[in-house]
Amino acid sequence: MEQKQLIDLLEQMTLDEKVGQLLQLAAEFYSEKAEEKTGPMTDLGLTHEDINNAGTTLGISGAKEAIRVQKAYMENNRLGIPTILMADIIHGFRTVFPIPLGLGSSWDLEAAKKVAEVSAKEAAVSGLHVTFSPMVDLVRDPRWGRVMESTGEDPFLNSRFAEAFVKGYQGNDLKNDFFRVAACVKHFAAYGAAIGGRDYNTVNMSERQLRDSYLPGYKAALDAGAKLVMTSFNTVDGVPATGNKWLFRDVLRKEFGFDGVVISDWGAVIELIPHGVAADKKQAAELAIKAGVDIEMMTTCYTENLKELIEENIVTESTLDEAVLRILTLKNDLGLFENPHRGADVILEKEVVLSKEHRDIARDIARKSIVLLKNEHVLPLSKLEKVAIVGPAADSHDVIGVWSWQGKKDEAISLAQGVAQIGAEYVIGKEAFDYFKPSQAAIDEAVALAKEADKVVLALGEEDWMSGEASSRSDIRLPQAQLDLFDAIQAVNNNIIVTLYNGRPLDLKGIDSAKAIVEAWFPGTEAGTALADILYGEYNPSARLSMSFPETVGQVPVYYNYDNTGRPYKTGDEKYVTKYLDVSNFAKYPFGFGLSYSEFVYTDFELSSHQMNSDQTVTVSITVENQSDISGQETVQLYIRDQIGEVVRPVKELKGFEKITLQAHEKKTVQFTITEELLRYVHSDQTFASDAGTFDVMIGSNSRDVLTKTFKLLK
């Protein structure tokens, strides 16, 4: 349709039909089973007419069902307007990839793009049109369960991943490429900064910090073309995001130039009431529509009150029309007026979903996301060694993460299965092993197996429900039973390799004396094969942390790009500086950290000049040598510090990275270009500019271990 045709369609709609376009309902409302449909209808006080007019749908699954629902919907819609089928496709559809925090640790943008591309293809042939992804919330507190959905603690890295995900989901021709889906960037804004790491909690920060650290990821996704934005549950400067006119009208619409659809998170409009900014559903509807929220997800503040608000001249009909037109435009951008069933294809669905090709891609990307945190010459394992695989995660299929909506645990590969597939010998217990309260028989069996083995792979971690939405934890250590098991195993065999399945950085006290620690996150459908490949050297670890691991939970939030203070801690026994008495200031494993089976050495760090004008650049070069007999990948990381700023600046900020492959004993020179634009930041008056002065430029294998030189920016 042309824009004029969309406007003509809008003009044909009644006020009730317009309001209906702003309502999103879940799959139950379109079920053929009366008991599934009637209960939710009663709960929300909806009529059949309301359901028939609801503009978008959440959580429909499968091509056959998607086709049925769309057909019935259009038959019941007076103007034949199609619905949009949306869902949470976070890190894979049926083929599940590593959680986004793991994908972030790959530092591989093409891998992220491929994840989105495969996810979109499986979702599209299954009838879906929109995914609620990527989540680009900056995260600094691992107590928050939803860190698993983010790509980490750094604005620069998050922004690059945001772009990659959007391009992978949407492709270059969303309207005609039926293997693609529209992307919804979330959660706008600053949801990841919830105080205390407690989900849905208040966020409190300055506008300057919001702009400097938290908004760049969303902006990058929008610049890449994301079609939708989802509101966050939290407050922004005291105003809940879903009713925050400044955030959506001024920042998102005017400053960022976003003209797509804004959708509330589940129930977020009605939550303006318990937030204490709306007295009732009518006022909640007023605040949300005036803020610019186009779609209300799974509550009925709009349905019940918008018509009356317009009749009372509290809300203008033109405000409603703007929202409806954006929704119609999205339907048009998806090609739904010409092809209401779009990519839904029952036959193709069977061929594409969970295909061998997709499983192979999942295995490769899972390997790229697994971080080797520690290795005291015990890895890689030899297939000739006698290895005991013990612990609750040894043969567990709880490896796909809690946000894998269509993923099935019984289709995932366990660690023991993965080791068996690569042909390695191992022993494993027969007793079922609980994560929290293992039986004495299971413990005794594990200890007996460990005693007879050359090395022990002790498979530990979280169960999937322990991270994700509404899964904040004040204590991010492993369960006590797992720590006790570690002690029992170590008493009979000190050659312990700990593997971890988890959705957040952990406090590793209690298992940190292991000879090796492998952070696998929740790796997805091919978890066991990917982890076995790492353990046995079939794949050389290349992942680097996208979020710091604390020494203890008492340090959090602990992150690499912290602001300096007037009494900075360096080293030694200084008393009156910013420090703890009982623990270091610094992360156990910092941002960017990860080991390899290769040994990389950095030399010949050079700057093309030690000063530059605003229209000039400085070229930074470093030589990296693989001084081992094993080919490997290294992620060369560039950090910059503004020594003197108009406001206090972080001690370092990631400004570039390059992932290189080096054969045994090979050298490569890596170059970065520093421009004046790279040195800009948000000042106290909210302007984005650079300062003349001295800058540190740092290069290294992680945010802690860097080489440093300086240059000056002249103005």
From TrEMBL:
<dbReference type="Pfam" id="PF01915">
    <property type="entry name" value="Glyco_hydro_3_C"/>
</dbReference>
<keyword id="KW-0378">Hydrolase</keyword>
<dbReference type="Pfam" id="PF00933">
    <property type="entry name" value="Glyco_hydro_3"/>
</dbReference>
<dbReference type="GO" id="GO:0009251">
    <property type="term" value="P:glucan catabolic process"/>
</dbReference>
<dbReference type="InterPro" id="IPR001764">
    <property type="entry name" value="Glyco_hydro_3_N"/>
</dbReference>
<dbReference type="InterPro" id="IPR002772">
    <property type="entry name" value="Glyco_hydro_3_C"/>
</dbReference>
<dbReference type="InterPro" id="IPR051915">
    <property type="entry name" value="Cellulose_Degrad_GH3"/>
</dbReference>
<dbReference type="Pfam" id="PF14310">
    <property type="entry name" value="Fn3-like"/>
</dbReference>
<dbReference type="InterPro" id="IPR017853">
    <property type="entry name" value="GH"/>
</dbReference>
<dbReference type="InterPro" id="IPR013783">
    <property type="entry name" value="Ig-like_fold"/>
</dbReference>
<keyword id="KW-0732">Signal</keyword>
<dbReference type="GO" id="GO:0008422">
    <property type="term" value="F:beta-glucosidase activity"/>
</dbReference>
<feature type="domain" description="Fibronectin type III-like">
    <location>
        <begin position="634"/>
        <end position="703"/>
    </location>
</feature>
<dbReference type="InterPro" id="IPR036881">
    <property type="entry name" value="Glyco_hydro_3_C_sf"/>
</dbReference>
<protein>
    <recommendedName>
        <fullName>beta-glucosidase</fullName>
        <ecNumber>3.2.1.21</ecNumber>
    </recommendedName>
</protein>
<comment type="similarity">
    <text>Belongs to the glycosyl hydrolase 3 family.</text>
</comment>
<keyword id="KW-0326">Glycosidase</keyword>
<dbReference type="InterPro" id="IPR019800">
    <property type="entry name" value="Glyco_hydro_3_AS"/>
</dbReference>
<dbReference type="InterPro" id="IPR036962">
    <property type="entry name" value="Glyco_hydro_3_N_sf"/>
</dbReference>
<dbReference type="InterPro" id="IPR026891">
    <property type="entry name" value="Fn3-like"/>
</dbReference>
